[in-house]
Each structure stands twice: as C-alpha cells, then as structure tokens.
Design goal:
By secondary structure, the protein is of the alpha+beta class. The chain has 13 helices and ten strands. It has three domains: 124 residues, no CATH class; 120 residues, D-amino Acid Aminotransferase, Chain A, domain 1, CATH 3.30.470.20; 33 residues, no CATH class. 24% of the residues are buried.
C-alpha cells in the first residue's frame, strides 16, 4: 500500500486579489469577452445576496426567454392550450363566487421592495444586459454561479434580466464562498490568515459577461507553477472521441499562448488558467484565472501529483511535451447525475441527513413553518 504525504499548498492574500476578475482581465483585453464590471457594490446588495430568502423585483415588462431544447422546456412562458383552459375555468369560478364567500383581502398583504438600497444598480444591470447583446453570464470577483444553473429555466447561467442574475447569485454556494471564504487557508509569512472577504479592504464586484455559446469539449485548464506549465487538463469530464486526434494541435496552441501572452504578464508565478480554444483554433480566449490552491478543482490530475511535480520543475522545463490529459473513454457515472447535482437539495436537508436527531429537529421546524403559513392564510380571509 502506497502512502502519500499531504503536501501543503500555500496561497497568499495578494495572490487571491490578483485572481479577482477586474485585476487579471485588464491585463489581457484582447483575450476576454466583452463585459461590464460594477464595483464597489452597495452594502444593501451584498446583504441581499446573503439573505436566507429569495425575493425578486416585479419587472412586469420583462419577458422570460427559454430554450426549448433542454430538460426544463416545460417551463415555457407562452400560454399553452391547457393553461388557457385553466385560466378560463378560474375566471368562471371567480364569477360564481357569492358575496358571502371568503375572499383574500389583498390590501393586507405587504410587499417589501427587494431592491431597496440598490435601485440604481438594478437599473444599470438591465441596461448593461441590453448593451451586451441581450443576455449575459454573471460572476463575482472569483466565482461563477455554475452550481445554481439548475434554478433557471434554461439550465445554464445565461441571464436575460436582473432578476435572472439575482436568482442565480442568491442560490449559489460558489457566491457565498466569494463573499465569506475567499481568503480562507491563506498564509502571510507563514502565518495563517482567515478573514471574510467583506472584512478585508477589497471591493466586491459584480461582473456581467456577454453570453457566448461555448463548446465544453474545447475548454481546458492549465496548471502553472514557477512560471512553468506542469499540466493541462480537459475541463469538461465527458468523453469526446474527436479530441484525441486534435491533442497535438491543441496542446501546442495552448502552450504557445500561455508562454507568449500570459506567463510573465500575470503577476504571480503560480496560478491556474482556464482557456477556450474554439474552431478553427486560430484564437484562444481566457475564461478565468484561479489561485494555485486546493480550492480549485484539479480535474484529471490529483493535487498530490501537482504538488509532487513542484520538485521536478527544472526537468519539466526541458521536456518538449507537457502532460496533457484528456478523458479517454465514456464515464458512465458522469451521465448518471448532472453536474453540481448536490446543490439541487437545500444544505439544511443534506446536513440533517447525516444526523437522525438533526433530521427530527428539521421535521419539527418544517411542521411549525407549515402551521404558521396556514394560520397566516386564514388571517387574510374575511
């Protein structure tokens, strides 16, 4: 049995700051998509993102655009014949109500303005989306809410209005990481640094990037240590049979791009960069830059491999080919569950499932809330 030593990967606060979107994207304007950055963000907006509930602003003039070619196509916004029939039946029912029958007193229902404190940002977001072509993908300084894409009808991070943006950001654990845990496990001069992002002197930013239909097969992650490429991994972990024939061409393109346009320009010698190389492979786009740390997915490598290779940097520098890894066969397990499927279930339920007493407490709290909701509904009936 082989025993591996756990190698520590140290990251400094300055390295985290350098990987904030506005800090790295301004260094490579030719290689990033069009975007709009809002910073600093209003305190009310940051509090809204961390609130327990999700309340959306009523933008009655905005339409939901849904791609019918996905698992959520039944959410189409246009009225189907069945929906029209239901509306007609509801109308006939309302007409038949007698005066002595109970009705909901809508005047008693209080609606809090969910965008109070950041109305200007709300309007600017909608305007920016129009300027960027009508649809965007959002992120904060470091993370994209990919783990919450299931909550939108498109099952992507494609947003058509500010409410789409809010829904994604509010539902994402990745966004919580940016707000509260971006500097976890950082070290300064050997001392551990653990301070929430909002308590540090850094402006949180909302980034809206124009929507681009990316072929996931052509996105790659490059691991750079001491300004040397120590590995390249396929970003999407599904099998694409045509990639193997393109491996040499893609590897050469990626390596040349990093050496000619990134290494030496990005301020840190250790980092991880995500690249997109669309056909006909004449252009390389930078998708993101992350810290060289265990918080970043190592994909087809292990972090043990990546840390062990640190000791072989000089040997790697003399090698003609970089270790470029592709998925070599169909992974049935990848098709058994959707990516980020663990985020489809509320965190409270996941935690409670590990403890029978916690599950019992959760059930009791749920019953209390259900009873409270029923009582509240009765109070609103005349």
């Amino acid at each position: 049995m082989t025993t591996h030593v756990f190698n520590k990967v140290s990251v400094t606060p300055s390295q985290v700051v350098n990987c904030s979107y506005s800090n790295w994207s301004r260094l490579f304007p030719k290689f990033v998509t069009k975007s709009k950055v809002f910073s600093p963000l209003p305190k009310a907006f940051l509090e809204y993102l961390e609130s327990d509930s999700i309340i959306l602003h009523d933008d009655g003039d905005l339409k939901v655009v849904i791609n019918s070619d996905n698992d959520y196509s039944e959410w189409e916004s246009e009225d189907s014949e069945d929906e029209v029939e239901k509306d007609n039946q509801k109308g006939e029912y309302n007409k038949g109500l007698s005066k002595d029958q109970p009705t909901v007193n809508k005047s008693k229902v209080q609606h809090k303005n969910p965008i109070a404190g950041f109305e200007k940002l709300h309007n600017d977001i909608n305007l920016a989306i129009k300027e960027l072509g009508g649809s965007i993908t959002p992120k904060l300084n470091w993370s994209s809410p990919k783990d919450a894409k299931w909550i939108l009808p498109n099952s992507t991070t494609r947003c058509f209005n500010a409410n789409d943006v809010y829904l994604l950001l509010n539902s994402s654990d990745h966004i919580v990481h940016d707000l509260d845990h971006a500097f976890d496990d950082c070290y300064n001069d050997g001392s551990h640094v653990d301070q929430p992002s909002k308590e540090r002197k850094i402006n949180m930013e909302l980034v809206l990037r124009e929507w681009v239909d990316i072929n996931p097969a052509l996105e790659f992650r490059v691991f750079v240590k001491r300004n040397q490429i120590i590995g390249i991994s396929q970003r999407d972990l599904n099998y694409y049979d045509y990639l193997d024939s393109l491996k040499t061409e893609l590897g050469s393109k990626i390596t040349s791009f990093c050496k000619d346009h990134v290494i030496g320009i990005f301020p840190d010698a250790d980092f991880i960069i995500d690249l997109y190389v669309p056909r006909p492979f004449t252009k390389v786009w930078i998708v993101d830059i992350n810290t060289f740390s265990r918080s970043t997915d190592s994909l087809l490598f292990t972090w043990h491999e990546l840390t062990e290779v640190q000791e072989k940097i000089e040997a790697i520098a003399t090698e003609e080919e970089v270790d470029f890894r592709l998925v070599t066969e169909h992974n049935v397990g990848r098709f058994a569950a959707k990516e980020h499927s663990e985020n489809y279930v509320p965190r409270d339920i996941v935690d409670a499932s590990l403890d029978s007493s916690a599950m019992a407490n959760l059930a009791r709290e749920w019953n209390k809330l259900s009873y409270s909701d029923d009582s509240g509904s009765d109070d609103e009936v005349n």
